[in-house]
Amino acid sequence: MTDSPHAHTAQYVPRFFVKQRLTMMVNRYEIRAANADGTEGAVLAVAQQKRMAFKEQVTFYADEARTRAVFSFRARQALDLAAVYDVTDGAGAPLGTFQKDFAASMLRSSFHLTGRGVDAYGRERNQVVAILRRFVELPFSFHFDFTDKQTGAVVMTSERQFSLRDRYAVTVNDERVDFRLAAAMAVALDALLAR
C-alpha cells in the first residue's frame, strides 16, 4: 500500500445525494453534489459493488466510464456479520473505518464510524420504523444519525427518501468528516441493510 501526496488531504462536502441503479450483475451507485437550491448537481463519484462477492468491496470511480478509482471500502473479514470495513483513497491510504454494531442492530441498525479526528456512532432514527422494516417489504423512508461519541453532536445524517428506487440525502455537519468516508458509509448503509 503506497501513500500518495494527497492521502492526508481531507475533502469536505456538506451535502450530497446517493442513488442506486439496478443492473443484473452489480449494484451501482451515483453520488451527486447538492446544489444550493436542493437539486442534484455534478457527479462526484460512481460506485460499483459486485453481487455475491466472497469479500464485500465497493469501489468508487471519478466518472461513469470507471476509468479512475478514487476511493473504496472493503471488509477485513469474509462472511462476518460484525466485519470492520476499511475506507481507503485511490492509492490505498487509509481514510477511516466503519463497523456494524451487530448486537445493537438486532432491533435498530447501528454503526461505528471512525476517521481522522472523528469517532462517531450512527443508528436508525426511528425505532418503530427500524422494527417494521425487518418484517415488511415496503420502501420505508428511514434515517440514520451519526453523533460524536464524546460530545453527542450530529456529525452526519443519511435520510432515505421515499421512492421505489433507493435514494438518500446525506448531510455532513462536521467538517472533519472526509467526503470519501461519508460517501462510503452512505453507500454501505444501503448495501449492508439490503441483506
From TrEMBL:
Pfam families: LOR
Gene3D superfamilies named in the record: LURP1-related
Name of the molecule in the record: Uncharacterized protein
Natural source organism: Conyzicola nivalis
Phylogenetic placement of the source organism: Bacteria, Bacillati, Actinomycetota, Actinomycetes, Micrococcales
